[in-house]
TrEMBL record:
It is a multi-pass membrane protein. Keywords: Cell membrane, G-protein coupled receptor, Membrane, Olfaction, Receptor, Sensory transduction, Transducer, Transmembrane, Transmembrane helix. Belongs to the G-protein coupled receptor 1 family. Signal peptide: none annotated. It comes from the Eukaryota. GO terms for molecular function: G protein-coupled receptor activity; olfactory receptor activity. The chain crosses the membrane at residues 25-47, 98-120, 140-164, 204-224, 236-258, 270-289. This is Olfactory receptor. Pfam families: 7tm_4. One of its GO terms (cellular component) is plasma membrane. The lineage of its organism: Eukaryota, Metazoa, Chordata, Craniata, Vertebrata. It comes from Sphenodon punctatus (Tuatara).
Length: 313
């Protein structure tokens, strides 16, 4: 990156995924097709669960909120990324940059806490099934969801409080397609060693500890299911495996980006695409494809819509 001496700080230049025009058009087509096919599927999950009384259990309330969070998360950076494919001068204002970081970390942290709530839900369902309706009712679920959003907000506001104190007076090129902490800190006109340590502990170490905690939790649950005599053993195993898959695809890129020193690596942009665009929209779809009840409810709702449309015609 070329470092100049001019004073800036009101805007940043995004270098994007590629500077080659043909590659940009190809990537635009791929990402647009991905959104056209996957985003409606996530919206369908939300409407299906909300409109089917047979899916009123907290077990289905949590994946619905996962779909909602992921839709919001994927609305933070990809729209500008798609627009920038047709722009020669890819810039973002300082305020827009801070807003991107805030909402990315707010929704990302809230989703991490949601995955921990889903692990708690499976623990109660498998280990204390007779107390499930008492320990995991809708009121408790909404309280836990509120706590997840509050935790995400707290995490994000700490990030922003640290970043806005940094002076930016020189180079303003971000080697990515969106604003994020690792690249932005490197542009600060001051020693950022302490800031990097704070960010590493606030994002990287917390993410890594939550990941390890969830893996241990689901390993214990799988052992409990395998050694028990629960008649719904196969369904419980399938649900746990689904959650483990979601945990892996959510945490792996986040740990790669935030749980290491903030130095550039060759795969940074590729991992960022999976973290901010691909994986979030895939999470609810993976859960749906492995859940028989939601799939059946989706088909019932689609048939109802089709019959209603035919009657209207």
């Amino acid at each position: 990156m070329e470092r100049t001496n001019h004073t800036t700080g009101t805007e940043f230049v995004l270098l994007g995924l590629s500077q080659v025009r043909d590659v940009q058009l190809f990537l635009f087509t791929i990402f647009l097709l991905f959104y056209v096919f996957i985003l409606p599927g996530n919206i369908l999950i939300i409407f299906t669960v909300r409109n089917d009384p047979r899916l009123g259990s907290p077990m289905y309330l949590l994946p619905t909120n996962l779909a909602f969070m992921d839709i919001c998360y994927c609305s933070v950076t990809p729209p500008k990324m798609l627009a920038d494919f047709f722009s020669r001068h890819k810039v973002i204002s300082y305020g827009g940059c801070i807003a991107q970081i805030f909402f990315l970390h707010f929704l990302g942290a809230a989703e991490i806490f949601l995955l921990m709530i889903m692990a708690y839900d499976r623990y109660v369902a498998i280990c204390q099934p007779l107390r499930y309706t008492t320990l995991v009712n809708r009121r408790i679920c909404w309280t836990l969801l509120g706590a997840a959003y509050a935790g995400g907000f707290t995490h994000s506001i700490v990030q922003i409080a640290i970043i806005i104190r940094l002076p930016f007076c020189g180079p303003n090129e971000l080697d990515n397609f969106f604003c994020d902490v690792p690249q932005l800190i490197k542009l600060a006109c001051t020693d950022t060693y302490l800031v990097e340590l704070l960010m590493l502990s606030n994002s990287g170490m917390v993410t890594l500890m939550c990941f390890i905690f969830l893996l241990i939790s689901y390993a214990i649950l799988l052992v409990k299911v395998k050694t028990g005599s629960n008649p719904g053993k196969s369904k419980a195993v399938s649900t746990c495996i689904t959650h483990i898959i979601i945990v892996f695809i959510m945490f792996t890129p986040a740990i790669y980006i935030y749980a290491r020193p903030f130095r550039p690596f060759p795969l940074d942009k590729v991992v960022s695409v999976f973290l901010t665009v691909v994986f979030p929209l895939m999470n609810p779809m993976i859960y749906t494809l492995r859940n028989k009840e939601i799939k059946q409810a989706m088909w019932r709702w689609l048939k109802h819509l089709l019959l209603s449309f035919q009657a209207y015609l």
